[in-house]
Design goal:
Strand content: 15-25%
Radius of gyration: 34 Å
Distance between the termini: 70 Å
Structural class: alpha+beta
Number of strands: 26
Largest sheet: 5 strands, mixed
Bound molecules: 2-(butylsulfanyl)adenosine
Strand order of the largest sheet: 2-13-10-3-9
Length: 678
């Protein structure tokens, strides 16, 4: 740890003022303008810093500090209403320990270790609203506002299909009256995508996330605009009726809400034990993306309302509930520059070089911009503040620019006219998305091709990845895939970073890669349209590469699951002289390219026997015969000698048969070979 000088009181006061100013500015942008320029998580981080500072030094608190009031999203253009009960917010927990600490505080206050049940619900990332029903009719819809006063958005919420205008829709349930239902207005992820696409088609690029779009939609003065946005309402609570006719637990509340015709979130669970609850919420993070709407965590509530109410409120947070927050996945940062990479097919991909930013547990400096059409469509410019998403296994990508944050100095991004690696002209067909490097021998393309060939999805050459491949290319030891199999231990020993063990391991993986089944070879070749499924289908119908190479598009289309475009792609690939040459070189280098022998055809029956194959066999190719022999423990050699056990001869045999006869070696036909195997 480095010694940090203790900050002076002046410096702390300064920092607190600075944080307040930032928070005020961001609140205004978020709540009033509807166009925030930082993410919620970043806002929370600023808020938490100020809150911690003020807790440590209460003399820094000012009455107008953002920490001293519930955040307000009031909009001066809309009429105001007063909430019958204040709309509070939730304390947060980020870890299992913080959940336990929450429970421990409750135990202290209750002065009993009574069993408590909990309800866990999704924490919707949308806009909170309160709906009032009088005699079963929707009479008021209001935003949360500052928690005490909200905006009257009745006409707008009426346009939301999942907001019932009359409850119950049918049946006998008689709702309390008046009834105040609370919930969240969200936009489903797929609805948002479709909406965003249609808006972009009209040149509107403002809509970059569901949450802000939902919020903006609700605050329209013209309900027709709200109606055109795909909003969905999820109910999560009922305000206690003074006459005691409302349910006594959260679980019953959700059941009643459903019966009254409201949507409630999926995955709502009740727990009697904290450990089970914690295991559930921790595991839930992995599932968050499978929900139809965005959530930023889960809400944990004490089920029993009597206990919940008895616990009271601290600051603006009820003690009986807590938000378990997932790490943020969306952050904003600045786009410094754009670098361009070239893939194995020659496609140019723009990458955003970013001001480093911490998201989902890692600092990122780069994010993909997908393609130049996307860049143009989203109107991303150099110098923009951009939103970045890093979620699960997905590569971080640029969601879009924050147009409101522009200074005017931002510069448009245009596709390059020459390849950044080989300076060949860039090719682009009008109406197509991709820009290509026009040079099939572009060194970058070749490196990527070989990398793909050696990767797990291809021949899976263990111990050989991008760095090693680039080193081999640079030293001139390889020029293409086939050269990999000609590498010698002596050559590798000359390279930096290759110790004996590493050399040995690489030689072993190369030898193993040579005998991978045909379907892996097909995938490794990078034929467009040929992934795992198609490769398997092709091999099932054409167990040898020779057969596949001579197949026509008609032949291929007789295979269920292969349509004209894949068939055409495969045929064209094999017609290309360079590709045929590549296959010939791989073969020469010893890559077997035969179909995998099913387990049922394996045995040790031929162990110790050496075979020589000659001529054309009636039902199988030489490759297949070799695979069959090897799968049953035998060896195949290229020439007849005294060590040869059998010669397997088909039609059009030549000198090998004569030599076998001269040496007195038994000659078998295909049926004879098969007879040796169980
Ligand atoms: S219960 C004291 N349940 O989260 C407030 N709130 O930070 C208790 N939210 O603005 C509210 N999903 O709108 C509750 N299933 C859920 C929720 C939820 C999202 C929002 C709520 C409030 C914020 C609290």
């Amino acid at each position: 740890m480095t010694d940090q000088p203790t900050p002076t009181m002046d410096a702390l006061r300064h920092r607190a003022e600075d944080l307040r100013a930032q928070l005020r500015d961001h609140s205004h942008r978020y709540y009033v303008l509807g166009t925030p320029i930082i993410s919620d998580a970043e806002f929370d981080a600023l808020f938490d810093e100020l809150d911690a500072l003020e807790k440590a030094y209460p003399e820094l608190i000012t009455p107008d500090s953002p920490t001293q009031r519930v955040g307000s999203d009031l909009d001066e253009r809309l009429p105001k209403i007063t909430h019958p009960a204040p709309m509070l917010s939730l304390g947060k927990a980020y870890t299992a320990d913080e959940i336990r600490a929450w429970r421990a505080r409750i135990d202290k206050l209750l002065d009993t270790s009574a069993r408590l049940a909990y309800v866990v619900e999704p924490k919707f990332d949308g806009l909170t609203v309160a709906l009032t029903y009088t005699a079963g009719q929707l009479t008021l819809g209001a935003t949360r506002g500052d928690g005490y006063t909200g905006d009257d958005v009745t006409a707008n919420v009426r346009t939301i299909r999942s907001v019932p205008v009359k409850i119950p829709p049918s049946g006998q349930v008689v709702p309390p009256s008046p009834l105040v239902v609370r919930g969240e207005v969200v936009i489903h992820k797929d609805d948002f995508k479709a909406f965003q696409e249609s808006m972009r088609a009209q040149g509107e690029t403002r809509f970059i996330n569901p949450r802000n779009t939902a919020s903006g939609a609700l605050k329209q003065l013209d309900p027709a605009i709200t109606a055109a946005r795909p909003l969905t309402f999820y109910a999560f609570g009922i305000v206690d009726a003074p006459d005691g006719t409302t349910p006594r637990t959260q679980w019953e509340t959700l059941t009643l809400l459903r019966a009254l015709g409201f949507r409630v979130g999926e995955d709502i669970r009740r727990f009697d034990h904290l450990d089970a609850l914690i295991a559930y919420v921790e595991a839930f993070e992995g599932q968050r993306h499978s929900l139809p709407y965005e959530i930023d965590g889960l809400v944990i509530k004490i089920d029993d309302f009597a206990t919940y109410n008895a616990l009271g409120v601290v600051g603006k947070n009820p003690r009986g509930a807590v938000a378990y927050k997932f790490p943020p996945e969306v952050v904003t940062t600045r786009l410094i520059s754009v670098s361009v990479s070239v893939g194995r097919t020659g496609v140019l991909t723009p990458n955003a070089e970013l001001e480093p930013v911490f998201v989902s547990g890692a600092t990122i400096r780069q994010a993909t911009l997908n393609n130049f059409e996307d860049v143009a469509r989203k109107d991303v410019r150099l110098g923009d503040r951009v939103q970045i998403k890093r979620a699960g296994e997905v590569i971080p990508f640029v969601i879009g620019p924050l147009v409101e944050a522009r200074s005017g100095a931002e510069m448009p991004i245009t596709p390059p006219t020459v390849c950044p690696f080989c300076q060949s002209p860039v090719a682009h067909t009008e109406g197509e998305v991709a820009y290509y490097c026009s040079n099939p021998r572009c060194p970058e393309r070749v490196a990527r091709e070989i990398e793909y060939f050696a990767s797990k999805g291809g021949l899976d050459i263990e111990g050989l990845a991008e760095k090693g491949i680039r080193q081999l290319l640079e030293k001139g030891l390889i020029q293409d895939e086939a050269d990999l199999f000609r590498l010698t231990p002596e050559q590798l020993a000359e390279l930096e970073g290759y110790a004996d063990l590493k050399i040995q391991n690489l030689m072993t993986s190369l030898a193993a890669a040579k005998t991978r089944p045909l379907e892996s070879v097909l995938m490794a070749l990078g034929i467009s349209g040929v992934g795992t499924t198609v490769a398997k289908l092709l091999v099932k119908h054409f167990p040898s590469l020779d057969a596949l190479m001579t197949a026509t598009t008609d032949d291929l289309q007789t295979i269920g699951g292969i349509g004209p475009s894949i068939a055409g792609g495969v045929v064209a690939w094999f017609q290309d002289a360079e590709h045929r040459d590549k296959i010939a070189r791989l073969r020469e280098a010893g890559v077997t390219m035969t179909a995998n022998t099913p387990a049922a055809m394996r045995s040790e029956a031929l162990t110790g026997l050496t075979f020589v194959l000659t001529g054309t066999l009636p039902t199988m190719t030489r490759d297949e015969a070799q695979a069959l022999i090897e799968a049953n423990g035998g060896k195949v050699s290229g020439s007849v000698s005294k060590k040869t056990s059998y010669v397997v001869a088909g039609e059009n045999v030549g000198s090998k048969r004569e030599k076998a006869e001269a040496l007195g070696i038994t000659i078998l036909d295909e049926a004879g070979l098969k007879a040796l195997i169980p």
